[in-house]
Amino acid sequence: MPSTSTSIESRRHTMKSRKCTGLSAILLGAAILAAPAAAETEQTIKAFSAWQGRGQMFETGPDRATFVGSFTGMIFVESDKGPINAGFMTCPAIVDVNILDGTQQAKGRCTITAQDGARAYGEISCQGVHLVGCDGDFKFTAGTERFKGITGGGPVTIRSGLKDFAMGDGNIIQESAGGIIVWPKLIYRLP
Predict the structure, then answer these.
(1) Which of 42, 81, 86, 113 is the most exposed place for a label (fewest CB within 10 A)?
(2) Whole-structure pTM value
(3) CB 45 within 8 Å of CB 152
(4) Please, which pLDDT band fits residue 94 given cuts at 50, 70 and 90?
């Protein structure tokens, strides 16, 4: 009859072997699942920015005006612990306004610079009402460093808040404004 201590040692050795085999299987499974993720990473985030803008409004027809300027601001990404500073954006833009009904169409290009200096570039287009805001689409077009090869995009909402006008030379109006831009479901993919 084997001794009790030998029997206990034998059971411990068997249990260790099973644990090692189980751990090895888990690690192998994780490695297999991680292999496709390494090929391309896709994430969906919610982001926003409080922006400040300035530019000039030009008379471009009997019932048309065109704003040429830019808006800038810090970008925040929503997380479980609240908004996290994700970088800074600069977006030169052109807004075409119908003076009769106040509708507008806007297009712009944005540079988003992360805290570490990596940049993501995108295009924005929207339609809406002048002095209120617009809704449209945002699309990533390129990136540098860790954003190299970025693709994706999503819906965007831009709302205007404070406005300040000053008459310039001729029919040019200097305009500054502030507001918020929201990306409720921004998808980005990295190779």
Answers:
(1) 81
(2) 0.74
(3) no
(4) very high
